[in-house]
């Protein structure tokens, strides 16, 4: 299966090298006596993330406790590697933290089995203040099952200013079209940005696509950063109705074939031999000045700002026939329905869903708050760094990919990833369309096994 929710998970789970440390776990019945002042309640808040994000939450909760001196909030960091196994075990036994992060691919079973607080009921007046795409993502059977906390925003093109200017390319309003080449300005731009070891660009005679000195773009088998954005921008559906549709939906199949051709036919991107087993290959090539245009999201902004030793900028992703329709992901904080102090938990949920409660998250510069009124703190942070981050959030203006959750998708994840890797590597016995059809058929069959 495609790399689900790799965006927020990679950075916030510390997959990019920031180790998440477990700092202690308390059950949902924790409370303690304040010194001579009666009962003081501790609400536990579970996340997977790095220390910077935990520190932002702790700053927010310090302000909360000043306004609610009878309630403290303890942030519990659990490593991504065992976060979901531990959460499942804790909730099945009636325990777990009072509030916990969950993503779109794991919340549904807990919602269906009455493990989560229905915030559509308890915080119905606050919902309008939250990012609509996040609210939609976590609304199931007519109810919202958590307070949106973080959003990806849209995807953008990070670009090396020197390489782009040298090629004479304008990235501001590129378009791509799998059916009408005269409408495609994206591929011609990438050809000018791709250079072989002899100094020839991909649009020149004698170009050797097997021996590149500079890559134009980071096309690869990466659903969240690349493939899903092309599928959405072509008006396609990757999955729908509990099944994969990327091969039976003509627009989706066209989009995937277009991306594969960027790698194997036009050679304007790294080979699959480099990217299939290394999701960071293209990012590292960009940071080394060897990749001109790097499509990604907010989760790579801080690293690029810190590590790039060249001038860089941000441009919108190319518009397809349906516009710019990216994959976007978000994280919610879900209330544990088994909490023994529901009132205190409710106050904390209301706080993290407020502008005041979310300002510290955006001010850290490490994430975009899902509370829309607090997003200015994120933009202000990056403005001070000399970066206009607004295009990341503006990237969803045309809409986002409709991508319904597939139950039991993990059962076929490894096999589908392997099949798509083979397609991107050019190792198909027939057409790309036929290979995609075979991969889809096998994946859908695996869902019921």
Automatic annotation (TrEMBL):
Pfam families: SBP_bac_1. Its main location: other. One of its GO terms (cellular component) is cell envelope. It is found in: Cell envelope. Keywords: Signal, Transport. The keyword Ribosomal protein does not apply. Residues 1-34 form the signal peptide. InterPro entries: Bact_solute-bd_prot1, SBP. The keyword Signal applies. Belongs to the bacterial solute-binding protein 1 family. This is Sugar ABC transporter substrate-binding protein. It comes from Lacisediminihabitans changchengi.
């Amino acid at each position: 299966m495609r790399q689900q929710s790799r965006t927020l998970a990679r950075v916030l789970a510390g997959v990019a090298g920031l180790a998440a440390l477990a700092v202690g776990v308390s059950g949902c019945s924790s409370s303690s006596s304040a010194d001579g002042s009666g009962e003081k309640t501790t609400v536990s808040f579970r996340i997977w993330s790095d220390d910077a994000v935990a520190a932002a939450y702790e700053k927010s909760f310090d302000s909360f406790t000043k306004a609610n001196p009878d309630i403290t909030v303890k942030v519990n960091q659990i490593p991504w590697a065992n976060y979901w196994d531990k959460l499942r075990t804790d909730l099945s036994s009636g325990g777990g933290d009072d509030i916990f992060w969950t993503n779109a691919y794991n919340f549904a079973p807990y919602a269906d089995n009455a493990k989560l607080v229905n915030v559509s009921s308890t915080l119905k007046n606050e919902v309008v203040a939250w990012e609509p795409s996040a609210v939609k993502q976590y609304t199931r059977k007519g109810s919202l099952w958590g307070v949106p906390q973080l959003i990806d925003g849209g995807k953008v093109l990070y670009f090396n200013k020197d390489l782009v200017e040298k090629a004479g390319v304008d990235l501001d309003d590129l378009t791509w079209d799998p059916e009408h080449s005269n409408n495609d300005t994206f591929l011609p731009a990438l050809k000018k940005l791709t250079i072989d070891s002899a100094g020839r660009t991909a649009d020149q005679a004698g170009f050797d696509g097997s021996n590149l000195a500079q890559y134009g773009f980071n096309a690869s088998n990466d659903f969240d950063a690349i493939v899903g954005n092309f599928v959405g921008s072509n008006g396609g559906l990757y999955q729908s109705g509990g099944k994969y549709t990327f091969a039976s939906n003509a627009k989706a199949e066209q989009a995937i074939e277009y991306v594969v051709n960027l790698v194997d036919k036009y050679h304007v991107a790294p080979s699959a031999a480099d990217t299939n087993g290394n999701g960071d290959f293209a990012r590292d090539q960009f940071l080394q000045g060897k990749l001109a245009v790097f499509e990604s999201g907010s989760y790579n902004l801080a690293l690029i700002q810190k590590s790039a030793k060249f001038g860089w900028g941000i441009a919108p992703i190319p518009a397809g026939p349906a516009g710019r329709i990216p994959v976007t992901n978000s994280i919610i904080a879900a209330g544990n329905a088994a909490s023994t102090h529901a009132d205190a938990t409710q106050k904390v949920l209301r706080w993290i869903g407020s502008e005041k409660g979310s300002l510290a998250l955006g001010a850290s510069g490490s994430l975009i708050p899902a509370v829309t009124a607090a997003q200015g703190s994120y933009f202000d942070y990056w403005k001070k760094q000399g970066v206009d981050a607004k295009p990341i959030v503006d990237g969803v203006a045309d809409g986002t990919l409709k991508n319904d959750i597939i139950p039991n998708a993990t059962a076929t994840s490894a096999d589908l990833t392997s099949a798509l890797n083979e397609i991107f590597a050019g190792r198909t016995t027939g057409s790309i369309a036929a290979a995609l059809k075979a991969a889809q058929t096998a994946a859908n069959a695996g869902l019921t096994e």
